[in-house]
Every structure is written in structure tokens, then in C-alpha cells.
From TrEMBL:
Name the record gives this protein: 4-hydroxybenzoyl-CoA thioesterase
Classification via Gene3D superfamilies: Hotdog Thioesterase
UniProt keyword annotations, A-Z: Hydrolase
InterPro entries recorded: 4-hydroxybenzoyl-CoA_TE (IPR050563), HotDog_dom_sf (IPR029069), YbgC/YbaW (IPR006684)
Transmembrane segments: none
CDD domains named in the record: 4HBT (cd00586)
Family assignment from sequence similarity: Belongs to the 4-hydroxybenzoyl-CoA thioesterase family.
Any GO molecular function: fatty acyl-CoA hydrolase activity
Length: 142
């Protein structure tokens, strides 16, 4: 079972510019919602984008998968939960979008990121200690 320390959530209201002409959130915009929840999760780990770069690594997404369960209309309140499930060799984050009021599942997804050295542009086969130490410290605090 995952530690609650390894999850973060955001509540958002979808906007008109998120939607297609039919008033349904365009499928590509889901990734913006995931990104916001992942950003909050990384800040919780004290390893946000500025800290990543300062530590000498970028973390490009190398894989993303999504399942659309229920269409989301614009002007709709959703809860987006990001959970870190792998961190030793790569960074895998699972996502869940729910109706903020009922908790009904609307979408689920995951992304995979890997560490790439800023100085040499080389992909690392294991996550750097600067990151794994932060994850382990957060788990220990929980």
C-alpha cells in the first residue's frame, strides 16, 4: 500500500477554453490537469522543477497512457490525484480524475519520466540519490 505522503491532489474547475465546440473537455487538455497535480506532488517532495534543474537533472516524460472513462464538461469541478508509485529507476506517477462532488471516476492515467543529466544529456538508468533521498525522507516522516 502506498504512503499517503506520496500523493497530492488539486481541485480544478474546467474552463470554456478547455472544451471543444460540443462543450466537452478536449482530450489533450487532460494532460494539463495531470501536470498540475504532478507539480504539487513534486513540490511536496521539495523537488520541483527549479530543484530538479539545480540538482543537475531534467526529467522528460518518456511514456504516457490514459483511459477516458467519462466525458468532462466545461465549468465542472474535478479532483485530480497524482500518486508516485515508482522512483528508484524511473519516476512513475499514476493519476486519477474524479468528480469533485461525488468522487465518480472520470479518467485514469500514468506518466513515466527518467532522469537526464543537464551537463551531458545522458539518460540515467537509475534515479539519482538527490531524488530518491527526498522520497525516502518524506515516507519516513509520514
Amino acid at each position: 500500500m502506498q504512503s499517503p505522503a506520496l500523493s497530492a491532489e488539486v481541485t480544478l474547475v474546467t474552463s470554456f477554453n478547455d472544451a471543444d465546440p460540443m462543450g466537452i473537455v478536449y482530450h489533450g487538455n487532460y494532460f494539463r490537469f495531470f501536470e498540475e497535480a504532478r507539480r504539487v506532488l513534486m513540490e511536496k517532495l521539495q523537488y520541483g522543477y527549479r530543484e530538479m534543474k539545480a540538482s543537475g537533472y531534467t526529467w522528460p516524460v518518456i511514456d504516457a497512457q490514459i483511459k477516458y472513462i467519462r466525458a468532462i464538461p466545461f465549468n465542472y469541478e474535478i479532483r485530480v490525484i497524482a500518486t508516485l508509485v515508482e522512483w528508484e529507476d524511473r519516476l512513475r506517477v499514476n493519476y486519477l480524475i474524479q468528480d469533485a462532488e461525488t468522487g465518480e471516476r472520470m479518467s485514469k492515467a500514468h506518466t513515466v519520466q527518467v532522469a537526464v543529466g543537464v551537463d551531458d544529456d545522458e539518460m540515467r538508468l537509475a534515479s539519482p540519490r538527490v531524488f530518491t533521498d527526498k522520497v525516502e525522507a518524506l515516507i519516513a516522516q509520514a
